[in-house]
Amino acid sequence: MKDQQTIVNNARDYYSRFGTWFGYTLVLGRAQHFGRYNAEHRTEKLAQRNALEQFARVLAPRKSDKILDAGCGQGVVAHYLAEHYEAEVTGITVTPHEVDVATKLARHRSLRGTTQFELGDFEKLRFKDGTFDKVFTYETLAHAQDVERAAKELFRVLKSGGKAVFVEYEWDYDKFTAEYQKTFDFVCKYWGGFGVRQFGKGEFAKKLRKAGFVKISELDVTAEVRPSMKRVKKLTAPLRFLVGWNEHLAKHFANNAGGNFYEDAVALRAFRYKVYVARKEAK
Ligand SMILES: C[S@@+](CC[C@H](N)C(=O)[O-])C[C@H]1O[C@@H](n2cnc3c(N)ncnc32)[C@H](O)[C@@H]1O
């Protein structure tokens, strides 16, 4: 098993690569998560907007709420919450380039007063107990070396009565084919995540309970994100041959070259995309 620092370094390397930044910016419009499609939201732009709206509806931020975005990427979610709900959002990431981009974009949108971005690791948070009204992760905890430790940290910094929302993945590892395992191993190696099998059926909710969270609910929205996954698969098809042909070149385009990663797992019924809501009991 890789140690925590190695996993953090791998994630940082992955998100610092030009190919990664280029892929997210071009294909998902800076978001580092999938769009949510439905009858009215049939383009990626609209689906991305819908993903933010649906997420905000669940998190239900209030004006001046202190919110932690753990694994904030380029700040797309934090900016949205600050702009539309006047919440005070702190975003943390292990990737210095993302802190710079998120901060610059906040300045352009006059959100410097309500957002702040900094380097930080969700397994070792610098914040005092009970700092935040709400905490969330959005397609992030797959990078954790120890998901339970991250959940405990997020629980610790949440105020009593506070709410946590996690948009995360669930896998059926026993449904993997040998061929799928090969793609999975490539993504693990160059993405800085998934290395330890911590997201089996029902496992995440159990870890949240062990961390102290109560009133845990989960919603499976795989069908809504699948068109976004299919789109990524289609757009990245020209790069995919790199994975088999030259691994060292492929690693620079790990997210592009591994573009069939999610859609193929959904087709195998080995993957679900879920929104978890949990609470810290009020004192
Ligand atoms: C798939 S991106 C999601 C970004 C953002 N939540 C979004 O939806 O656009 C995962 C993010 O997690 C960050 N990350 C990875 N490991 C981390 C850790 N140990 N602590 C904090 N952030 C981490 C990465 O730097 C990246 O910003």
**CATH topology type:** Rossmann fold
The biggest beta sheet, please?
Answer: 7 strands, mixed
Q: What is the distance, rounded to the nearest whole angstrom, between the alpha carbons of the first and last residues? A: 38 Å
| Number of DSSP-assigned strands | 7
Characteristic key phrases:
single chain; about 280 residues; alpha/beta; Rossmann fold; seven-stranded mixed sheet; 12 helices; 7 strands; about 50% helix; about 20% strand; globular; binds S-adenosylmethionine
Question: Could you please describe the fold and organization of this structure?
Answer:
This protein has helices at residues 4-16, 18-28, 44-59, 76-85, 96-108, 147-157, 178-191, 203-211, 222-245, 247-250, 254-257, 261-267, and strands at 66-70, 88-93, 115-119, 132-138, 158-171, 214-220, 271-279. The chain has 283 residues and is of the alpha/beta class. It has one domain: Vaccinia Virus protein VP39 (Rossmann fold). A 7-stranded mixed beta sheet has the order 3-2-1-4-5-7-6, with helices on both faces. Helix 6 packs across helix 8 (203-211) and helix 9 (222-245) crosses helix 12. It is globular, with a radius of gyration of 18 Å. The relative contact order is 0.16.
Write the layout of secondary structure elements.
Layout (H helix, E strand, L loop, with lengths): L3 H13 L1 H11 L15 H16 L6 E5 L5 H10 L2 E6 L2 H13 L6 E5 L12 E7 L8 H11 E14 L6 H14 L11 H9 L2 E7 L1 H24 L1 H4 L3 H4 L3 H7 L3 E9 L4
Parallel strand pairs: 1-2, 1-4, 2-3, 4-5
Antiparallel strand pairs: 5-7, 6-7
Bound molecules: S-adenosylmethionine.
The site of S-adenosylmethionine has 25 residues, from α1, α4 and β2.
